[in-house]
Design brief:
Elements: H1 3-39, H2 44-73
């Protein structure tokens, strides 16, 4: 198998796995934050800030993989 063919199959699959993992991670983070806010409404601002920081890191990882995929697509 040539490198171009391998990249052609691996890039979309890798991006799909990353998107799926990111969606699961974001869903779990938001669900945990909503649960924590329901248990302690007075700490909702601190919970929101921490949740947003975590969600930004998850999204950054997803964007890095997307950019990496576009760079490798130039090799095809």
């Amino acid at each position: 198998m040539e490198a171009n063919v391998a990249l052609g199959f691996a890039l979309p699959i890798g991006l799909a796995i990353t998107a799926f993992g990111s969606a699961l991670g974001l869903g779990k983070a938001v669900a945990a934050a909503m649960d924590a806010t329901g248990r302690q409404p007075e700490a909702s601002q601190k919970i929101l800030v921490n949740m947003m920081a975590g969600c930004a890191l998850i999204e950054a990882l997803t964007l890095y993989v997307l950019i990496f995929g576009f760079v490798l697509m130039g090799k095809i």
